Amino acid sequence: MDGVNPRDVVRGLWLRRRPLALLAAALFGAGLLVVATLPPQYRASAVVAMRAQHPAGDVVLPTVSTQPEDRLKTLDAELLAAPLLQRVVTELAVAPGLPTMDARVAKLRGQVDLKVEGDDVFTVSVTARDPKLAAAAANRLPAIYADGVRKDRLTQAERAARIFGPEIAALRSALVRQDAGIARFKAERLGDLPEQLDGNLRGLDDTLLLEERTGEALMDAERRHAALLTSGRDDATALGRLRRRSEDLAKELTDARAQWTEGHPEVQRLERDLALTGARLQRVEGQQTDTARELRAVDAEAADLRRRQAALDRKASDLRRRVEETPATAEALSALTRDREATQAKYEALLGRQVEAELALALEKRQSADLFHVVAPATPPARPARPDRAAGALLALLAALAVTALAGTALEIADDTLRDAKDAGARLGVPVLAVVPRFSTTSGRPVRLAEQQRT
Q1: Among 6, 46, 270, 372, whose Cα sits 20 to 30 Å from the Cα of 286?
Q2: For residue 452, what pLDDT is reported?
């Protein structure tokens, strides 16, 4: 046939209605049998909500960077991971007839359906032949997942709380070393430290004033020493003169006594002059002794003043050196202090971070139980989710009709019977000169050619 005429197809289907009806009935019966023998599959669902963590980050800085709701982005990968499914397979004895654990895990993975609703809610659905197993698996999967998430968050929080410990200990040791270094530096540079500058300046002023007064006292002692030396020389001169005078008078008295008696006036005069000269000699000798003693005292005083002046000069030089070296000492001490303050700031900052991390860990432990909330736990379903036998029967009917129609159409297309004069002319390629009319009985039923020949 060059083309398919819908009317011819319909006519062909009508002519073959009996065998096609038998074919449709057979196909429909087979479909009903398949639908009837399909095992029932029960579907159980659990709805789980993730609760946000409180308090907010502006109260206590969180140490777990990933928020629970962020994990919904990777829910499929985490919830359907092999280790988690293996726990469910082992606990609930899923698909015990399969030979390997991988096969059982793969079967359970095919039975699980996940659906994320909103920003913090997800639904876990499990389809199985056993309604109790479906409900148990639907409840157990999010429970194991939630337990893993809680443990993971607690592990991160504990790691964050522990991570500051070694650094804090190192900084504490550094502070001890720096404090010891500063103490040693201060001990080595004691006297020219910045905080001692005012004292050194006052001490220098006092020392210079004492040195000036000591110098003045020394000059006075030297003047007295010179005066005593002059007085001593005068006393020595007078003493020499008086001694010569006494010797002369004693000689004259001896000569006078040799010439005159004791009552002679000359003798008496000489005796008086000798006595007066002796008295004056004793007085001058006493003055010389006093002068010598005062001279020794003045010499001792001057020596002591010179020692004091030398000590004061050394002290003033030392204080002057301390004052001059104070800026360099202050700069070196400032560098040590800055390093110590920087270390102290780091130590206090890390100590604060550690306290916050420990607070965050404590909050995480208290809130971990409320991290996941089962909004609607899965319960064993009363009716199977599939197969839908009514829909299956309808689908089987539609499939049987479609296959029957296709089969009838194919048969019509493959049939090369000449049905009318037009078809004969087109197929044979010659003009049709006459057409034998269709004969029918009195009842109107068409009579075939063989029956006409018998009549």
Answers
A1: 270
A2: 45
